[in-house]
Every structure is written in structure tokens, then in C-alpha cells.
Amino acid sequence: MISCRSLASTLLSLFAPACAFGMALEGVLLPRRETPAPFLAFLDLMSVCALALAAFVAGLAGGVLAWGWAAAAVAFLSARALTLAGRPLSFEVRLGGVFLLLGAEVERHLRAGGGTDGALATHLAGWALLGGLGGSVFATMLLGHWYLNVPGLAFGPLRRGVALLLGAVSLRCAWTGAWLALGGAAFPGSSPVLVWTRLAIGLGVPAVMMWCAWGCVRLRANQSATGILYAATALVWIGEMIASHLFLAGASATL
pTM of the full predicted structure? Predict the structure, then answer.
């Protein structure tokens, strides 16, 4: 049974910063000229909120792990303050933010006593894939909602966002499948219900739903695609939080 304290720790120590990374990466990969500038600014705000929440709660717990995330949040806010209201950050600034977030996670991993060789590379890859899926599905869902409220937008950004989602869920499934095949994610001592919820509800069902969303986007049915993405976001977040919990509990060797 997952306690409320354990679930909160999982969400704030790994999942929230990883989602901030995924949202920042989505901002880099969306077509800059076609994507609404206010949406990109809102995406920046969501990333900062996730980072600030993680840093603040870690600080309350007396953890030194808060500094990397706090620095990343301050950097994002500073870059935003230097631009006009609603104006998107430059590609270079956004890309720098993505690498800053990766560096902050390296700092968190090392301060938590993680390894510095293959263990670090494995952890960082799993964390990036977790954030790439969890953050991008949330960002794409928000983008689809933006289309419902602002008519006449070019369809390219939403099509790109769903295509990125397909890539993210494919990589996440391949990563998890590879670790299962190698025995590195055997989940010893964990509840079968949690494991199957993570694999089926958190990966399998969302993968199917994203293919359905892709079909809707190709037909320019953005309302249907957004509805599917709402449900996919909830399922992905449930699955990724369970994956984070299994990792922190020692039941899985990777995220």
C-alpha cells in the first residue's frame, strides 16, 4: 500500500521536475513561428511552477536537493522577465533551459548518493524519458485546449505535438521493455497490481490513445483529439508516478 507521504515524496522528488523538463523540451521542439506566443509563455509558467513546488517542499524537508531545482526555476523566471509579456523565449534560451534541467537532475542524483558512471547515465536516460512523456502529454493536451478557445490557429503545432507524443511513448515502451527483457526491472517485492497498472494503464492504453489522437489530428478534429489527450494525460501520470515510486522503493533498477 502506498502511503500519502510516500506518494507525495514520489511526485515532488522525481515526477514534478521531470515534467518540467518535458514541458521545456516541448517548447523547444514545437514550430516557433506557428505556435501561439501566449501558449509558450504559459508553458514556461507551468515549468516554473513544477520546479518551484519541488524545490520548496524539498527545502521544507531540510533537503539539500532543492538547490538545483531552485536555480532552474530562478533562471526560467529571469529569462521570462527579460522578455515582453507573452513574448516567447528564444530557441537558444529554451535549449539552455533544457540542459539546465538535466544538470539539476544530475546534481540531485549525486547528492542522493547515486553512482557516477553507468548508473548515472541509466538514471538520467530513464528520468528524461519519464519527463519527456509526462511533460509532453500535459503540454500537448494544453495546446489542444488552446485550439478550442482560440479559433483559426494553424494546425501544424498540434500535429507536431501529437507526433512528438507518439515518439515519446514509443521510446518509453522500448526502454521499459528492454529493462524487462534484461531483468533489470523485475520489480521484486512489489505489488502485482501496481506493476500491471504501470505497464497496462500507464503505457499500453495511452499508446493506443495517442494513435487515436494522431488519427483525429490528421482529420483536423482537434476537439476529439483534445478529449483523448485529457484521458491520456491522467493515465500517463498515474503510470509514471507508480514507476517513480517503484524506483524509489528499490523495486526497479531504473525509471
Answer: 0.86
